Sequence to fold (315 residues):
Amino acid sequence: MNRITELFNIKYPIIQAGMIWCSGWELASAVSNAGGLGLIGSGSMYPEILREHIRKCKAATSNPFGVNVPLLYPDIDKHIQVIIEEGVKIVFTSAGNPKTWTKVLQEHGIKVAHVVSSVKFAIKCQDARVDAVVAEGFEAGGHNGREEITTLVLIPAVRDAIQIPLIAAGGISTGRAMLATMALGADGVQIGSRFVASNESSAHENFKNAVVSSSEGDTKLSLKALTPVRLLKNKFFHTVEEAEARGATPQELEELLGRGRSKIGMFEGNLDEGELEIGEVSGYIKDIKPAAEIIQDIMQEFTEARRSLASDVPM
Fold:
């Protein structure tokens, strides 16, 4: 056991990211059943929909699972209440102040991890007494840090700054990448994009196919004047890029973004007009397979890479 498997009572130190429109109860339960920690992505759910997903996840797995709560979304107090009422034991918070809900959740016996993109905010998390920190490099998909700090740089810097358990995220989809981040000081990994391209992901098949068809350089961090987000390049992305190039105001960008743009793309499969959030590592993902097989592949490669490194590097 390591600090992450012990903290969350799981077999492997692999956390499936709680991604909007992609990670419902089916994916979370599949990952948890395979020995990782599955997370329900509550950012795209109304409170009662979240309750339904939690109950279905409980019925589908006897292993630990959690809920990801992006603090920038409305009705967060209602989401927290549902989580407490339904007896969820693990919550990953992001996009907000970790002090806001950590103590409340912990008072109900809930383990709390918070996602950050810098050393400064990792220290704030430790001061807020979270149970673990997720340090996410800017290679990651979805909402991201403005500083554009890469995972390779971020993980050792955060490890040197905090003493609590550390989870690496951003650009990780393989056992070799998992080994690399653990060598840098991480106790476990959080993986998003690889699980988008899984059978159990609630992403639309069009979006899944777009991910596995993508190549390196097909994503870019966008909308930095609002909330930075890494997107797969499509018609909507280029419209945003053109608006930013001509100096569009944040208000103009908000109007362009409109409502439900991510749902249109990731959940409904409109590859032209939708917002397609995915990480840089998408260019390395070439197939859609069951979540359990993904975890199996990662752990097998991790073990082989660790063994190979031990035999190849002179001591």
